[in-house]
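Exam revision sheet. Question 4 asks you to relate a sequence to its structure. Input first:
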Amino acid sequence: MITPIIAEAAAAAGISGSFTLAIAGAGAAIGIGMVGAKAVEAVGRNPGAFGKVLTLGIIGMALAEAIAIYALILAFGGR
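Answer key, structure tokens:
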């Protein structure tokens, strides 16, 4: 219900799907970078937890990347 209202407001303001995708991609890139940095920091503090940290890091990166995929679908899926 709220999506058509946001779409109309974005169209009126001249915001295209490319801008939406750029913002979501930047957010996903920052999120992936933060997950990677904290995973490296965690392994540096406790090398014995490498396997668990790697698993959680991959899951976190996948969830952050999913945001960019959702934005891609929303930005260009309606065409």
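Marking note for examiners. The radius of gyration is 17 Å.
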